[in-house]
Amino acid sequence: MDEIIMENMAFHGYHGVLKEEKVLGQRFYVDAKLYLDLKKAGESDNLNDTVSYAEVYKIIEHIMTKEKFELLEALAHKICNEILLYYKNIETVVLKVKKPSAPVVGNFDYFAVKIKRSRRDYE
């Protein structure tokens, strides 16, 4: 299976359990890997035979900036569901949501959730 890779997309969102996170928000980073057959697109050089990066970005951006979730798990699940609903040619989505300013005392780069959802999970 071929891959389309979208990494380190940055968004300001209002996701988290704490009140401050819901009011002030914070920066999140998203990595997405989309698994699909790209042979036809490679042969045709036609956007209709692949996935529009811009459209996938818009789906992710909308959910990250306009919706609110307490858990990264629920946020990532929603993004995967929407991508699979919109693009029937995508077989699997692997998504990582990173939260570099998580309200945890300690030294760290980020906390993250990484999930994998496949079309067959919904059949």
UniProtKB/TrEMBL annotation:
GO molecular function: dihydroneopterin aldolase activity
Coiled-coil region(s): none
GO biological process: folic acid biosynthetic process; tetrahydrofolate biosynthetic process
CDD domains: DHNA_DHNTPE (cd00534)
Superkingdom assignment: Bacteria
Keyword entries, A-Z: Folate biosynthesis, Lyase
Reactions catalysed, as given in the entry: 7,8-dihydroneopterin = 6-hydroxymethyl-7,8-dihydropterin + glycolaldehyde
Protein's UniProt keywords contain Repeat: no
EC number: 4.1.2.25
Domain Dihydroneopterin aldolase/epimerase residues, every copy: 4-117
Pathway(s) the chain acts in: Cofactor biosynthesis; tetrahydrofolate biosynthesis; 2-amino-4-hydroxy-6-hydroxymethyl-7,8-dihydropteridine diphosphate from 7,8-dihydroneopterin triphosphate: step 3/4
InterPro entries named in the record: Dihydroneopterin_aldolase (IPR006156), FolB_dom (IPR006157), GTP-CH-I_C/QueF (IPR043133)
Presence of the UniProt keyword Plastid in the record: no
Gene Ontology cellular-component annotations: cytoplasm
Role: Catalyzes the conversion of 7,8-dihydroneopterin to 6-hydroxymethyl-7,8-dihydropterin.
Family statement drawn from the similarity comment of this UniProt entry: Belongs to the DHNA family.
NCBIfam families for this protein: folB, folB_dom
Protein name listed in UniProt: 7,8-dihydroneopterin aldolase
Taxonomic source organism: Clostridium putrefaciens
Organism ancestry: Bacteria, Bacillati, Bacillota, Clostridia, Eubacteriales
